[in-house]
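Sanity check. The docking grid for guanosine-5'-triphosphate depends on where the pocket ends up, so I'm generating a full predicted complex first rather than guessing from homology. Inputs follow.
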Amino acid sequence: MQGRTGEDAYIDLPIGSIVTNEASGRVIELTEDGQISKILHGGRGGLGNEHFKASTNITPEQSTPGMEGEEADFKVELNLIADAGLIGLPNAGKSSLLNSLTRANAKVGAYAFTTLDPNLGALAGGYILADIPGLIEGAAEGKGLGHKFLRHVKRTKMLLHLVSLENEDIEGVYKTIRAELEKYGNGLTEKKEVVVLSKTDLVGADKVAEARKILSKYSPDILEVTILDDASIKKLGDSVTQLLQK
Ligand SMILES: Nc1nc2c(ncn2[C@@H]2O[C@H](COP(=O)(O)OP(=O)(O)OP(=O)(O)O)[C@@H](O)[C@H]2O)c(=O)[nH]1
Ligand SMILES: [Mg+2]
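Predicted complex below; grid placement will be based on this.
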């Protein structure tokens, strides 16, 4: 965008935009509404005829060249801004849970990689949840939909790690996702993590208790949910809101 001499030029970008100056590598993150950041210095106009006018020089044809403004190429990426991010293997029930907890209308399917793009929804208390495509082992090497969506949970306060109880190897499933978070880096493994055991309706109470026991070595916060029971959803929503208020 070009501005006239002496005027600032603005480019409007949505919250969550990350602007990188490709030459200098300088990164500006737009995290607040109304935030204004200067990315380039404008030029300065040269002096024109008016400046050179004098009693001895009535019709001057003189000017000075002025100063060029800075130029650079920028990369603009959009990261979602959410309070908590839903992560887990494909089919764990992330999108179903987002739809149950919020008014989102994310696509749900009984197959892997139903979600191709992230979805957002607001909890009753106003907190924003982000649902991202499922992660699989090897995502770091580009398998499945890869890591590219993890950047959307980089700025969240908390990760809701869904582990579906339909899996036999609960610990293995949990560790697969943790390993991918580790490989992605960016501090994701230091984020507060709440484990959500999903699809409790598919197993007996003994299996739920066993899964809790196994995963309690990794996380102090273990919740459970089935989207088939409104009371269960309400309880989970309240717990998540409480944890976010902390
Ligand atoms: N029985 C039962 N099925 C569920 C529950 N939650 C989700 N499902 C089913 O599990 C399947 C996968 O649900 P999704 O919400 O699409 O799973 P996802 O984690 O978003 O999957 P991806 O987008 O592929 O990563 C769908 O067939 C859902 O109907 C639950 O609590 N109980
Ligand atoms: Mg999904």
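Relevant for the grid: Residues 84-245 form a domain with the Rossmann fold fold (CATH 3.40.50.300).
Also worth noting: The CA atoms of residues 140 and 147 lie 6 Å apart.
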